[in-house]
Specification:
There is one protein chain. The chain is an alpha+beta fold and about 325 residues long. Helices cover about 25% and strands about 30% of the residues. It has a seven-stranded antiparallel β-sheet with strand order 6-7-8-11-12-10-9. Strands 2-3-5-4-1-13 form a six-stranded mixed β-sheet, with helices on one face.
Length: about 325
């Protein structure tokens, strides 16, 4: 698994790289492109200092965007723009349509942008360009929430979630962890997915929220090639912003022939809901997650804090401030 693309630098913007080239400009066919970014992937970050945009809540919006994109063919062209809006102060994420923009490029660029914003601690209006072998193939825009939408949401009474089920936790005074449905509608092709629930047990070791949010984004990216594939064991160690994050997911040994077979899409659905769950519970720590169907365990996993790691931001990344 290559990580260099996520930590890659941007190419210098020129008339060629910032134009939209023809498909013949690509040096490889889509079948030669790996599932995860490697050293041939670069991105350019363009930040605007004013207006300020959002905080780490934007990562939740990015996770939802990647969740929706993950169910599509990775080589599908996105010729029209798609926008995902977050609540309150989250802002929005827009994948701009283009002649070369595929689902794969869009997901890679969202993940790259999340890491860049968190490493720099710059949650601002921004535009990111993605390049494959120095050819521009994607652009993603981050915009602030409209004042009208913010006012409407501030005045709207908050309703309790009727699907929330609370269980025991090992974290003192945490208010118990969440169990939530996985039936988001994005995995409707799988049998019995409406009966899947995830139970989260928060552990006592605290984790920086940037580390665990980066882990969630990278896990979604890593699971996407296995969206419809049964999972027996899935390991993924992620370089967070300050620490490595260690994860492993296992299918339960007791799954019978009539029970749900855990697939990558199930984990993606669960991971996409984790950021808002942790924010609501105000718990950023190691955790054990159990996935059950009608109360029967079908899979489980852990997210653990690993050793300290540097920021992994290459020295030749270029950031442009528009004033």
């Amino acid at each position: 698994m290559s990580l260099s693309g996520i930590y890659a630098a941007a190419v210098e913007p020129t008339a060629n790289t910032l134009s939209t080239p023809s498909s013949s400009s690509l040096h490889t066919t889509l079948s030669d492109v790996p599932d995860l970014p490697d050293g041939r992937w670069r991105f350019l970050a363009t930040y605007r200092r004013d207006p300020p945009v959002y905080n780490l809540r934007i990562v939740s919006v990015c996770a939802k965007a990647m969740q929706e994109l993950a169910k599509m063919d990775p080589n599908r062209l996105l010729t029209t723009s798609r926008t995902w809006n977050g609540p309150e102060t989250s802002g929005s994420v827009t994948v701009e349509g283009g002649a070369l923009t595929t689902v794969r490029w869009a997901m890679w660029l969202i993940a790259s942008a999340v890491r860049d914003m968190m490493t720099r601690d710059r949650f601002e209006t921004a535009l990111f360009y993605g390049f494959w072998q120095d050819v521009q193939v994607a652009s993603v825009r981050f915009d602030p929430p409209s004042e009208l939408a913010k006012g409407a949401e501030d005045n709207e009474p908050k309703q309790p979630d009727s699907k929330v089920v609370y269980t025991h936790t090992t974290v003192p005074d945490s208010g118990r962890p969440l169990a939530f449905d996985l039936s988001s509608g994005t995995v409707g092709a799988f049998a019995n997915d409406d009966n899947l629930r995830a139970e989260i047990e928060y552990l006592s070791t605290a984790v920086d929220e940037k580390d665990i949010l980066m882990a969630i984004i990278w896990l979604i990216l890593s699971l996407t090639p296995n969206y419809r594939k049964p999972l027996k064991i899935f390991r993924c160690n992620v370089f967070g912003i300050y620490h490595a994050m260690l994860t492993i997911w296992n299918r339960a040994h007791t799954v019978g022939p009539e029970q749900h077979v855990l697939v990558g899409g199930d984990l993606i659905n669960m991971l996409a809901k984790l950021p808002e769950t942790m924010e609501r519970d105000d718990k950023y720590c190691e955790m054990i997650i159990k996935i059950k169907e009608r109360g029967t365990l079908v899979g489980h996993g852990v997210i653990r804090k690993g050793p300290p790691k540097p920021g992994y931001l290459s020295a030749n990344v270029s950031v442009y401030d528009e004033r």
